[in-house]
Amino acid sequence: MDYSIGIDIGGTNTVIGLVDESGTVVAKEKLRTKESSIVDDYLKSVATKIELLADRVKEENLILGVGIGAPNGNYYHGTIEYAPNLPFNGIIELKEILEVLLLKDGYNLKVTVTNDANAAAIGEMIYGKAKNVRNFIMITLGTGVGSGIVVDGKLVYGHTGFAGEVGHTIIDIDGRQCNCGRKGCVERYASATGIVITIKEMLANTTRDSILRAIKEDEITSKDIYEAALKGDSLALECFDYTAKILALGIANASEVTSPEKVYLFGGLSKAGDILLNPLKKYLNEFLFSVFQNTIDIELSGLKEEDAAILGAAALCY
Amino acid sequence: MDYSIGIDIGGTNTVIGLVDESGTVVAKEKLRTKESSIVDDYLKSVATKIELLADRVKEENLILGVGIGAPNGNYYHGTIEYAPNLPFNGIIELKEILEVLLLKDGYNLKVTVTNDANAAAIGEMIYGKAKNVRNFIMITLGTGVGSGIVVDGKLVYGHTGFAGEVGHTIIDIDGRQCNCGRKGCVERYASATGIVITIKEMLANTTRDSILRAIKEDEITSKDIYEAALKGDSLALECFDYTAKILALGIANASEVTSPEKVYLFGGLSKAGDILLNPLKKYLNEFLFSVFQNTIDIELSGLKEEDAAILGAAALCY
Distance (Å, rounded) from C-alpha B246 to C-alpha B267? Predict the structure, then answer.
């Protein structure tokens, strides 16, 4: 059987998984991303873990390579570039350094890098629901909003290697201030962070009753809003409706560009299921240009949350 | 030498051109699109003109095929579908009917169909400035705003075959009413029609002096605004600045999706040159997410206005 190694580099932890061709994570290793702020030390630890996993199967099987999903990961350069939430500054030559380290120890493995959302999109193609879907958009709803765009069966990297930033398309030039320095980005509304901003605005601007008034304002989480919505709290439901509206606008605008057949939602907020999906579908059709209406299905991702980042990264080897 | 036949179907005229491989239109035929509202009659006339042109070179040369650029032209289906400005209703099986007509007369030519803006993008790739550009966006600024998106050297058709509608991305959900039934489409601001709406609003909402006040309001054209701007008329310049701002937002949002290296402007409003280009470049950089800033050049198309539609259509044969 063929195996691949998928690595999910997050701000806190780095998880390294050995994945078989059916998409099962057969073994995992973990280390703290902040273990060392010296990149070379950190990457030596990563290489050691890769070798540990490879040793489990390499005698009798082919290991296709190592795929890495990382914030600001660049597919063309094999780098991480100026990732704000990682302990390493500037441009990290991830692919080059790791390949050299592995080769020194006798492991001839090709390393491929991309960002988390692109990895999720490729994961959906290889192991998830998008096996036969030629045109789709993957939306990852976490602290921010990421996206991976697939056109004609291929992930879109574009000129820079950073294509697919639906979360940073602008839906209102006078809108909310985004961390990126601009205003009105989709991410500022349709992420776990964004929905909390929305509910705080709603609680402040109305005197309407809500279960959420029992929680200290600074402690409200997106999960609280979801639970309130599940109980039929009208303010929480309205908050989800507004979130869905903005997300639908971002998806509609991206869809006018690439005309996808499917949109898959993944991560955090997508767990709200129909509470998010139902208004999302309604608004998407409203915002779409006539030729695209009723041509796009929005669904939840087919990847298991727990292993999705590793699966996406491992899928880069294909 | 290889030749191809390019057809530009417009609301008023249909122009059929014989194009050599260097991109020279060596001969042209013309007929009125509204000659007959019976599609079969119209297409018989088109076929006759194609044959007339083909006869000029077919003895000693290869004719690659027939390319057609038409409003609402669909590449996958070879059809025109519900084009509002053509005299034919519903779905026209353009490719099928024309191929049969031509074959009957002994001309075995493959017919390819797409919309005008996609044809312009392909024309730019084959005959214009984009010969070695893998990722670009073509924007056609006419009565409306069209676009053709090229990713990794291939035109994006998407699931429906209608991908690339930057003109119908929404920049303000409470914005101007668009003909398409929705509100706030880029096209409603950044087209020849849109800029006239803007100047009328400006003239009505201020008492500022302007050369344009000498023209009857209902008779102001985008050309008048351009000429006033050339003379330094501050209201006209502000009008171009606002137009550029909205267009920049539409282009920025599309660029977050596909990360182009170049954006080419074509048609009507693009003739304003630097009056449009200078503010457009400034706003584009402002609206772009940091990783895309200073990675995109905006330029005027390299296709000659007069023959561009035919060249784009002819380029479909490649």
Answer: 17
